[in-house]
Design brief:
This protein starts with a strand and ends in a 16-residue tail after the last helix. The strands form 3 sheets. The chain has an 8-stranded parallel barrel with strand order 3-4-5-8-9-10-11-12, surrounded by 4 helices. Strands 1-2 form a two-stranded antiparallel sheet. It contains 9 helices and 12 strands. 34% of the residues lie in helices and 15% in strands. By secondary structure, the chain is α/β, with parallel strands linked by helices. Strand 6 and strand 7 form a beta hairpin.
Length: 327
Amino acid sequence: METTTLNGVRVSRVGLGTWAIGGSEWGAVDEQEAIATCTGILDLGINLIDTAPIYGNGRAEEIVGKAMAAHGRREDFYIATKAGLRRGGDRVVADGRAESIQEEIEQSLRRLRTEYVDLYQLHWPDTRTHIEESAAAFLRLYEAGKIRALGVSNCSPAQMDIFRSVAPLHSSQPPINVFEQQAAQEVLPYCHKRGIGVLAWSALCRSLLTGKIRADQTFPAGDIRSVDPKFQPPRLQQYVRAVDLLDAYAQQNYGKRVLHLALRWLLDQPGVSVALWGAKRLEQLAPAREAVDWRLKPEDMQAIESILAEAVQDPVGPEYLCPGVRD
């Protein structure tokens, strides 16, 4: 497994994302299997787990905590979790108030069964709270030793500038994948220039880049993809065609499949430190071994862009995932 450093700590360049393990928006999850997934990543050379309180209303963090307890060595894991999103009735809303962040870290530490978090991230900027307030709350937790590195997620360069005026910023977590490249325009160059690590979420675009999604596939209510515009016709047919073409390209040129190509594309983006790969079961992570220790050439990058331009006539980003505003 390829590795990098975040705030001086060695981490794997592929990390386990636990949104699906939370079980609330991706279908049922067997707890024992989820725990086995979190411990089994170490055998794949993966030590970074990214989670959040909002995933399954705390269940994802609880599973990660049980996994670390079962393994017995907390220091073998690099745990990144977050604060700043809450459920408000039937909505998810941003909440970056200092008192909310203080409450969230205590709950996260309890669920994770740990005394510290390796990386604590502001999950989403709260338009009703000044970022300076959120950053100051993070700084207090950092100085108290409850968190060892500070990060943000889904923040613009301007918002990161404000955060950095108050506290150190060690990482940023934007959505970026072959189909959603907006962060490559400003966020990646900003972080790359300033030595800020980047954890890229949705590396496989909510499973679209696994090659397992059919053009006629539908998703049950409660599955996040049932409201994702990429997974609705006619866009779904366009994206599936792009996946088929990318898969053919990967097989012809590298003897790989589309998910290997998609992950390698992401790891080869200047500034990307870690690609977060969501999984419910350990075997879903096994292909990560075939996505590392090789590189794409400039002509491959151009070919990928040509495929996207040909197949996807009506592209759309991840904007539908933006949280609501607090009342």
